[in-house]
């Protein structure tokens, strides 16, 4: 089956990235706050709603109308409005939250303690118990002890399969924060009157795990069988990089199932996809990330003569490191907003439908090629510096510098520029300087004889990930994604604008680039709060909407 699958016919597009990097302890954040007004979308036949390459120009934000499946009964969605269904679905969601699948730093191949391992086994058992039709119909492959890959076999071996992704692990709850929680973090407390379900993982991201399975269970209940095979992948260590989970799943899908380049669409978690624009006349801007920044981490070690703090040398190790950090901060990468950057699409969409116009953004876009590009980029970017100084005179001071790499750049460029910015500090202070890449000395400077007061050693890269490819926004896969969002989330008096965007962080999709060119990151559970912090909680209504999203996405994709 899998070996015969062929990709969808699609015109590939190569547009990407806002060039900014987090330099050392420097955080370069892209901030855009706009108010968006109501706009009218014309719903016509699907073929008539497809934007052409010329209509989807750089500085316009054309919108598709809602996409509804033509096959099956319109009443299939009615069950999601039933009080009985909502209560039962939320109870199953609560049960998932109650299992503390925390992901700790000690994760290597599997979770290191018996309790941690048992929790992932319990979570798998909860899924199989909660969804008996999935248990009896879909094939489950367990990969590297805890990651799960469900296969819903389609009837057409030549139709490119769909992959839905999420992860089961959650960030740990710090013991010192327990008293700050309104309800215990693993209680899965349900508060129907206030539309909340509490607990670690309710937002990130057991809601997508459970919602995707609720959707499939519901489709199985009405006898739906997909043409395209549907894969559902849940990793067990995404919060620590996904190397034991999603990476192994991707290798299995590519090497064992033969799906390299053959998956029609991949949908994984996003971050803050919904932006409410209350003053804009009831319009929400929904961001679907079509790319992710890269990442590069390297180590800087300063070795100096120690001493007592009462008689400090002229340049202590901490002082030298402070100067290095200052040098990195003083020469940041220029903020560049290029045509290749998906974030520009987000800016354009928010501006086009703005109820309250930001004149700097509007004029920057209008004069983009006459200097507006630079003004706009600087306006949208903000910088912050955080550092920590030690109250000691150590002989060795170590800093780990992490850069977020723009889609306009590469890890090699970022690392090269950074160490060359640090070199003048070492020379000025008479410190030996060495750059090492694995076992190779990339560059070395030795001070004049007798003047060496220490050494600076840079090891690169400790970790590195190139910026992701940019997924297209002018093909069938994108039309299914955007059209389904319009269909599910738009309501009377509430319009939704779907904008391509850029994700600053990384998801498990970084391991799946070889399977598909259509990778979209979207957070379907709207209205959550407390991401990675105390009182994490998801909206019950938002969770039910997410179930509808997956339900309709599968049906719409099946009609490509």
From TrEMBL:
One of its GO terms (molecular function) is metallocarboxypeptidase activity. One of its GO terms (cellular component) is fungal-type vacuole lumen. One of its GO terms (biological process) is proteolysis involved in protein catabolic process. Zn(2+) 2 binds at residues 167, 204, 268. SUPFAM superfamilies: Zn-dependent exopeptidases (SSF53187). The active site is at residues 169, 238. The keyword Zinc applies. CDD domains: M20_yscS (cd05674). Signal peptide: none annotated. Pfam families: Peptidase_M20. Zn(2+) 1 binds at residues 204, 239, 532. The keyword Lipid biosynthesis does not apply. Keywords: Carboxypeptidase, Hydrolase, Metal-binding, Protease, Zinc. This is Carboxypeptidase S.
